[in-house]
């Protein structure tokens, strides 16, 4: 975070940093006071725009066109950082000639499976040495990893597994042309792919003027290179799209081309929105991964331990993921202790199996369909905070039992008496059979533990006071619940109960008689179970073994308790140490503050420039050194070259800085791992008033859609009926509130600052629709209608897209209609439907289509009739906008690699 | 000037005038609105520290992102939001340029000038025609280096289509504080830090101070048994309790971008001058200082501001005058009669109070 | 002009003794004013913590007096936040001490129209019972091809992004061992 102060240019896109991360923004302010250029690219002029050098208004959901045009500009004008690109990225790598680009297939890549609505990525693979003899192109990035079709990888959100590194490749023998001239090099493919992404296309699709585009292009390229670095900052403005992961990939390509990755003042900063949302991904409360980004086993792919190990830890690939078997065994040992033995494959079969996507939205739909009996809500308020609030609330009403743990009486706990669906008559309190347990939790000062902040930094919170009344930490609650569940199963001889009964669940208690958080953190850190260091805590993940002699609850966190010291509690004041501040908290992995920082030095190991020195090779002492922990094998000289075919960390050369990638390179082109294409390409959102001008393929052909009667969409593009919902709406947060309001709408000091739900509209739209500042408006989507007070403001800019004016409407989403908060109001998330990004199963909530009209919404049942009237006028059916393939091409016929699969 | 002459107008040291045995350096705020992100942390930190009750009726004001409206009894820091399009921005820039041309106090003339700050460009030689006698300096003309000119041209050449000004307002802790001078009970006093503070245990809620404040800062908290200090006059104390323990006021401590700076007033003014120079050097001729002029109608304020437009735009009086400043003049004209009337007025009030 | 003071007898002497002739300084200070101390000074202890709102991870100092949190403000030692907090972080004390914060276990029975108070121990027991029953009822041993599943699709969870790593670890560990896989949090949203 502090490193942003070292940037010479900061592009904030898909984030409203000043509003949502105000204290982090001090580093942007500092950079700017030192002369850095700050650019904010966003549909709205926000408090970030107000304090940037430049605001570029953009149509929500069109970011790939803008960023793709920057790539085109960089390549066409030779503005990339040549030495960096050739040495550190896969630009020179040659891709299989079976690969077909979207430019040839009207918006589809080769390998599209129309039936499953997903890709077989085998044709995107790197060409292998010896290709053309007997190896099929499909082998790279394939069979050893259990050649997995995009359908099943999407189902298990495999994209999430790459939270700490790239996907496995079969091996590291790839063909390269360092002149970058071979037409099948990544470099040339990239050039061709983005050639139509021109400033004029940007103007036409994004509504950004050619001048504004050039302003950004100039600022970025002039502030990148040996002496200068630029940073990107993004947040959920990029992730909450059906193409979300590809938005971020586009920025990654730019940053690799400009040589900004792994360097001070560079990189891509993901600004996460919750105190430990990074931690809850690292040690996941997510369905598809285990701690440390190890995959949850999937039926058909990981049925046996051998299948699993082969899939996650290919010994032939380069990098540290080759040791994933050690991480997995150590996790199983941490959970099942002595019950995990070599003979039973470390209790691998105690793990339940996935059969598809089981994300929160799939779960909500299953719940609504009566398939889920019990639900725990732990500091989360989906009735307001999740997309499609209606579906969320109707689903809660189908549960047998619900446990809500929250500081305040949130809408998800009171839906049975004050959900909007009670007012419409769809729900009746007396008919809702859900049994609700409300349990108050401890606040952040009433328990000790670690949060992992947005830059992977673990910080220990000391406990200040005991929780009041019945309040109790989650740690204590789940420890207690686990004990009581185990008591109820004690003596069972049913094999299904073994995993619970064999679970290591004996934790020491602290001075208050509660489970010790430090003991849990030690289990996470890992320890030696046998051998001469038996009983000692692990120093680092390199200590971990696949032979059962170590345990570790989360391998990437290994080292946080090295030598028995809680390093997350390190608190050397910032002013007493360097700005990198390594003695404050502990960052994974191995306390590194900038990942891939080997790239801050040139291939010979010297800093690219004095101004941007960070980590370098000390020739005299034959070691890497610098301002941070080098993210590299410390003693591996820049000149080191492995024997061909060497796998694991030793397979990386002395100038392969991307140590978690299977070839040690930064990936401009992803031969594997992305499920909707090896290169980002522009698709329109699920709901859009605009026809995709680049391809016949309107929207992401691999996105996840759910054609259901309770999840309807407006027609898109030029489809008839799209004019019924002519405007784009986008949802967001305000500084004064926090997400669904559970931690802000109940506090008078925050509520008075933003007391009411409002919508932001341009003066032009207000004029057009008769909206008055301070008055009321009703916003109607294909799902429902909500009301909001109106703010008419020049901060909203109508954009001209393909000759047509497009209005955007801004909707903060903090309010809900519950009666218990200090302030309440309609919820913007009620307007949303559920359509997901295929890589990570995140919903598209940053863009949707709507109408707006003056006045308050109808009350009672009348609101249902209003919504139905719109639906019928637009001709909305379950199929509307849910067709995945709209391209004219037939990629399966042009892709011979499909044969035999 | 004699002690009494200084007491109602003109430059003076209010701490010495109040005869503190252990005077401290005068403390104050510098609010640099050019880096304010309008987050309102100052409003919340202030309310939390001072246990100020909820303000208003929880209504949307329809006034950009401002929903607290103005400073008052239960809002001691207030962030204004002003949305402007290019024509107004051009006017602000032009009015800033005029300030210099007219020798208006972009910088307070009574303060020694710091050298124009040229942000890494190096000292620039004085240009012909520049008044180097210590009066207002034409900073724009003072920048002669080609680099600086280029920077300036780049910035001035492009007036943005739109801007959103944010500014955190607070009590000015005036050198000549109308509220203090009219307080009949001694509830308001001048602290050893030169700030002006209400003592809630002394205040009787008469409300004279409310009318005497040229900035409309101080206000009586309505009578309401559910809140503290109801019925009393209330305003920013510059966190007097914290200052007594060498702690930073809550608002300045919280401010994420250091838009609110706190420290010795002379240093605050110097910092403010430097920042104004930097901005003007970069072509932002609309930048100007507010409140740091000892010759103004309140003898200079203890809270100074860097503004990017005319004060009225932020809801600040362009030429604040403490009403009591006219008193000596009145006395000269009315002689003892005036004093007697004032005494009678006070007597009758205090009589009523009992 | 000093007439206003002459009617108050008590500070007069101080006024002249101190030289605060106009009664605008030390002469008029009350006992309360003269002994004023910030509660950050009088606190029994100060505890280092981290802000619970966004993911910047700002350092907080929690001031405790008589086992009550009396103040939460930025920790100047933090190299990330340097003592600063946003409005939400600045409202943390209100989050902790909010008079409308729920501190009792409440229960809504099926088809009920209001909350009932419930003993926490009883509630946890009832939840454990329901957990075990739902798990048994919805257990899936194998799929239609006989491949092992060993899971329940009848129990789900949402939340964790504002919880501690240690808490998420126990949640994931317990639910996974129980065969419940639909364990999600805000990171998916």
TrEMBL record, chain B:
Q: Which GO terms describe its cellular component?
A: cell envelope
Region (Disordered), start-end ranges: 111-134
Family annotation (Pfam families): Fer4_11, Fer4_4
What does the entry list as the binding residues for [4Fe-4S] cluster 3?
171, 174, 179, 213
Q: What is its main location?
A: other
Query: According to the record, how does the cofactor bind?
Result: Binds 4 [4Fe-4S] clusters per subunit.
User: Where would you find this protein in the cell?
Assistant: Cell envelope
- Name the UniProt record assigns to this protein: Formate dehydrogenase iron-sulfur subunit
**To which species is this protein native?**
Pedococcus cremeus
């Amino acid at each position: 975070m502090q490193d942003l102060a070292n940037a010479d240019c900061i592009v904030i896109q898909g984030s409203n940093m000043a509003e949502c991360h105000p204290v982090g923004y001090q580093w942007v302010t500092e950079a700017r006071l030192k002369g850095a250029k700050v650019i904010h690219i966003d549909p709205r002029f926000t408090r970030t725009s107000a304090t940037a050098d430049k605001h570029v208004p953009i149509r929500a959901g069109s970011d790939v066109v803008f960023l793709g045009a920057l790539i085109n500009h960089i390549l066409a004008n030779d503005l990339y950082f040549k030495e960096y690109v050739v040495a550190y990225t896969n630009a020179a790598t040659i891709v299989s000639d079976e690969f077909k680009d979207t430019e040839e297939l009207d918006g589809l890549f080769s390998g599209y499976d129309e039936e499953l609505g997903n890709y077989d990525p085998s044709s995107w693979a790197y060409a292998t040495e010896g290709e053309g003899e007997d190896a099929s192109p499909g082998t790279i990035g394939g069979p050893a990893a259990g050649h997995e079709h995009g359908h099943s990888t999407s189902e298990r959100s495999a994209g999430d597994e790459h939270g700490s590194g790239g996907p496995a490749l079969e091996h590291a023998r790839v063909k390269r042309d360092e002149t970058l001239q071979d037409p099948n090099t990544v470099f040339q493919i990239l050039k061709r792919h983005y050639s139509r992404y021109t400033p004029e296309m940007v103007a036409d699709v994004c509504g950004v003027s050619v001048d504004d585009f050039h302003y950004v292009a100039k600022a970025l390229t002039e502030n990148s290179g040996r002496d200068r670095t630029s940073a990107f900052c993004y947040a959920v403005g990029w992730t909450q799209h059906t193409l979300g992961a590809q938005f971020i990939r586009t920025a990654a390509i730019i940053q690799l081309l400009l040589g900004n990755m792994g360097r001070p003042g560079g990189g891509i900063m993901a600004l996460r929105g919750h105190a430990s949302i990074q931690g809850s991904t690292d040690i996941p409360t997510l369905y598809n991964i285990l701690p440390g980004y190890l995959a949850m086993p999937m039926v058909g792919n990981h049925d046996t331990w051998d299948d699993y190990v082969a899939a996650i830890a290919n010994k032939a690939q380069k990098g540290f993921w080759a040791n994933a078997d050690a991480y997995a065994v150590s996790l199983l040992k941490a959970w099942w202790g002595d019950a995990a033995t070599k003979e039973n494959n470390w209790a691998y079969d105690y793990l339940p199996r996935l059969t598809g996507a089981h994300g929160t939205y799939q779960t909500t739909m299953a719940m609504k369909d009566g398939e889920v009996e019990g639900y725990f809500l732990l500091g989360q308020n989906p009735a307001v905070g999740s997309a499609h609030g209606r579906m969320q609330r109707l689903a809660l009403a189908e549960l047998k039992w619900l446990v809500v743990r929250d500081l305040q009486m949130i809408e998800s706990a009171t839906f049975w008496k004050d959900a909007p669906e009670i007012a419409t008559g769809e729900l009746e309190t007396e008919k809702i059979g859900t049994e609700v347990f409300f349990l108050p939790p401890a606040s952040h000062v009433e328990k000790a533990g670690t949060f992992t902040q947005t830059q992977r930094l673990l910080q220990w919170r000391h406990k200040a006071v005991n929780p009041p009344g019945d309040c109790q930490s989650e740690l204590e609650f789940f420890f207690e619940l686990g004990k009581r569940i185990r008591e109820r199963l004690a003596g069972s001889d049913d094999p299904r109960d073994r995993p619970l009964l064999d679970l290591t669940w004996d934790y020491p208690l602290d001075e208050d008689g509660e489970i010790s958080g430090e003991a849990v953190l030690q289990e996470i850190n890992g320890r030696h179970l046998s051998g001469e260091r038996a009983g000692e805590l692990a120093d680092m993940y390199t200590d971990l073994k696949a032979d059962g002699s170590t345990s570790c609850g989360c391998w990437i966190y290994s080292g946080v308790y090295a030598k028995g010291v809680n390093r997350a509690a390190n608190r050397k004041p910032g002013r007493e140490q360097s700005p990198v501040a390594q003695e404050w908290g502990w960052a994974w992995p191995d306390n590194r503050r900038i990942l891939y920082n080997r790239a801050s030095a040139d291939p010979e190991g010297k800093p690219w420039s004095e101004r941007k020195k960070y980590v370098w090779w000390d020739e005299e002492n034959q070691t890497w050194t610098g301002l941070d922990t080098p993210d590299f094998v410390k003693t591996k000289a820049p000149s080191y070259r492995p024997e061909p075919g060497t796998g694991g960390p030793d397979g990386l050369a002395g100038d392969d800085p991307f140590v978690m990638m299977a070839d040690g390179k930064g990936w401009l082109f992803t031969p594997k791992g992305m499920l909707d294409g090896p290169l980002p390409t522009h698709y329109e959102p699920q709901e859009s008033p605009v026809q995709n001008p680049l391809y016949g393929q309107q929207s992401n052909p691999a996105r996840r859609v759910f054609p259901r009667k309770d999840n309807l969409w407006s027609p898109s593009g030029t489809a008839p009926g799209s004019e019924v919902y002519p405007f784009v709406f986008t949802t967001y947060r305000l500084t004064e509130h926090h997400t669904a309001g559970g931690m802000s709408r109940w506090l008078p000091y925050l509520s008075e600052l933003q007391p009411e739900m409002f919508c932001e509209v341009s003066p032009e739209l207000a004029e057009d629709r008769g909206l008055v500042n301070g008055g009321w408006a009703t916003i109607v989507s294909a799902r429902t209608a909500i009301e909001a007070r109106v703010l008419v403001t020049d901060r909203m800019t109508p954009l001209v897209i393909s000759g047509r004016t497009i209005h955007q409407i801004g909707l903060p989403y903090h309010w809900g209609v519950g009666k218990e908060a200090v302030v309440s109001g309609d919820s913007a998330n009620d307007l949303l439907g559920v359509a997901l990004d295929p890589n990570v199963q995140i919903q598209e909530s940053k863009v949707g289509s709507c109408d707006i009209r003056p006045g308050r919404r109808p009350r009672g049942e009348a609101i249902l009739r209003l919504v139905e009237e719109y639906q019928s006028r637009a001709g909305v059916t379950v199929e509307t906008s849910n067709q995945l393939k709209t391209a004219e091409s037939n990629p399966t016929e042009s892709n011979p690699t499909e044969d035999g699969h | 000037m004699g002690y009494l002459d200084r007491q109602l107008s003109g430059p003076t040291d209010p701490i010495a005038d109040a005869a503190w045995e252990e005077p401290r350096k005068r403390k104050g705020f510098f609010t640099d609105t050019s880096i304010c992100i309008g987050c309102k942390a100052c409003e919340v930190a202030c309310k939390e520290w001072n246990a100020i009750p909820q303000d208003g009726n929880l209504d949307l004001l329809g006034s950009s992102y401002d929903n607290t409206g103005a400073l008052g009894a239960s809002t001691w820091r207030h962030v204004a939001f002003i949305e402007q399009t290019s024509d107004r921005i051009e006017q602000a820039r032009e009015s800033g340029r005029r300030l210099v041309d007219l020798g208006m106090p972009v910088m307070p003339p009574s303060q020694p000038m710091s050298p124009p700050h040229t942000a890494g460009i190096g000292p620039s030689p004085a240009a012909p025609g520049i008044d180097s006698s210590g009066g207002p300096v034409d900073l724009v003309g003072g920048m002669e280096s080609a680099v600086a000119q280029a920077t300036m041209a780049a910035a001035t050449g492009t007036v943005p289509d739109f801007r959103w000004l944010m500014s955190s307002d607070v009590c000015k802790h005036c050198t000549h504080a109308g509220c203090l001078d009219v307080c009949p009970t001694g509830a308001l006093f001048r602290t050893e830090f030169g700030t002006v503070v209400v003592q809630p245990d002394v205040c009787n809620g008469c409300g004279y101070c409310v009318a005497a404040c040229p900035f409309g800062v101080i206000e009586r908290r309505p009578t309401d048994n559910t809140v503290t200090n109801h019925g009393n006059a209330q305003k920013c104390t510059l966190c007097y309790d914290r200052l007594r323990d060498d702690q930073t006021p809550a608002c300045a401590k919280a401010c994420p971008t250091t838009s609110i700076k706190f420290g010795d007033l002379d240093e605050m003014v110097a910092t403010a001058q430097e920042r104004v120079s930097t901005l003007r050097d970069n072509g932002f001729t609309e930048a100007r200082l507010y409140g740091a002029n000892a010759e103004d109608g309140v003898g200079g304020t203890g809270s100074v501001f860097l503004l990017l437009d005319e004060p009225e735009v932020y809801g600040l009086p362009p030429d604040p005058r403490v009403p009591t400043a006219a008193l000596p003049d009145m006395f000269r004209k009315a002689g003892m009669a005036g004093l007697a009337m004032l005494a009678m007025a006070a007597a009758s009030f205090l009589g009523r109070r009992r | 002009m000093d007439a206003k003071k002459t009617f108050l007898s008590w500070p007069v002497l101080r006024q002249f003794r101190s030289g605060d002739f106009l009664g605008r300084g030390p002469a008029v200070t009350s006992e309360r004013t003269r002994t004023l101390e910030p509660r950050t000074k009088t606190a029994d202890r100060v505890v280092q913590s981290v802000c619970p709102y966004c993911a910047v991870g700002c350092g907080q100092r929690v001031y405790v007096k008589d086992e009550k949190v009396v103040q939460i403000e930025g920790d100047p030692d933090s190299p990330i936040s340097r003592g600063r907090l946003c409005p939400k972080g600045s409202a943390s004390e209100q989050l902790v001490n909010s008079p409308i914060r729920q501190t009792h276990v409440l229960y809504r029975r099926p088809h009920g129209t209001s909350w009932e108070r419930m003993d926490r121990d009883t509630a946890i027991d009832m939840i454990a019972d329901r957990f075990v029953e739902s798990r048994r009822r919805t257990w899936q041993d194998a799929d239609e091809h006989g491949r092992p599943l060993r899971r329940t699709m009848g129990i789900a969870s949402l939340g964790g992004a504002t919880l501690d790593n240690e808490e998420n670890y126990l949640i994931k560990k317990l639910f996974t061992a129980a065969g419940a896989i639909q364990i999600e949090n805000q990171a998916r949203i």
